[in-house]
TrEMBL record:
Protein name: Flavodoxin
SUPFAM superfamilies: Flavoproteins (SSF52218)
GO terms, biological process: heme biosynthetic process
InterPro entries in the record: Flavodoxin/NO_synth, Flavodoxin_CS, Flavodoxin_dom, Flavoprotein-like_sf, Protoporphyrinogen_IX_DH
Domain of life: Bacteria
Segments crossing the lipid bilayer: none
MF terms (GO), sorted A to Z: electron transfer activity; FMN binding; menaquinone-dependent protoporphyrinogen oxidase activity; oxidoreductase activity, acting on NAD(P)H
Residue ranges of every copy of the Flavodoxin-like domain listed in the record: 3-157
Length: 163
């Protein structure tokens, strides 16, 4: 099965997730960074995994724009959705629901939250100030969950066979 992992990453956590996904998935897998590729052609893929992260309460514009421009084609594919964010529980679920349209979430065969990371060395001054003020953090922090990523892969591949 030809699968595209399409994502945008601000500080590298979503890129890390996309790379790990590509290593764990079977079949022909292509990783596409929306910050480096202008609107990739997706018609020749059977499956699409979309990923992004939350910054200031919103997912990257490149991902939301990609979804809007390709919604009809995406609805004909096997879809997986993931999100990297530092919130957990109900707050993380709410961010996931805000990030992806209901129609796409309902159509997807695998959804997951992979946690997130604050990597202060990759943040600009304003981002560092906001994180310090909101969270009190001044050092790198990670809630990245490789187990959730592995479960996502297992569910995605299992449901790809039955859909």
């Amino acid at each position: 099965m030809k699968t595209a992992i399409i994502y945008a990453s601000s500080h590298g956590t979503t890129a890390k997730a996309a790379t790990l996904l590509s290593e764990k998935l079977t079949g022909d897998v292509t990783v596409i960074d929306l910050k480096k590729t202008k609107l990739p052609e997706i018609n020749h893929y059977e499956a699409i995994i979309l990923g992004g992260s939350i910054h200031a309460g919103m997912m990257q514009r490149k991902v939301t724009k990609f979804i809007k421009l390709n919604e009809n084609v995406l609805m004909t594919k096997k879809i997986g959705l993931f999100l990297c964010c530092m919130h957990e529980g109900d707050q993380a679920k709410a961010q996931f629901e805000l990030a992806y349209p209901d129609k796409l979430r309902s159509h997807s065969i695998s959804n997951s939250l992979f946690g997130g990371e604050f990597i202060f060395g990759k943040m600009n001054f304003l981002e560092k100030t906001i994180i310090k003020k909101m969270k009190g953090d001044t050092v790198d922090a990670s809630t990245f969950n490789e187990e959730a990523l592995s479960e996502f892969v297992q569910k995605f591949q299992q449901n790809s066979l039955t859909v």
